[in-house]
Amino acid sequence: QVQLVESGGGLVQAGGSLRLSCAASGSDYSIWQMGWYRQAPGMLRELVATITTGGRTDFADSVKGRFTISRGNARNTVYLQMNGLRPEDTAVYYCYANLASRELWGQGTLVTVSS
Question: Which of 57, 70, 106, 113 has its CA 20 to 30 A from that of 96?
Answer without folding.
Answer: 113
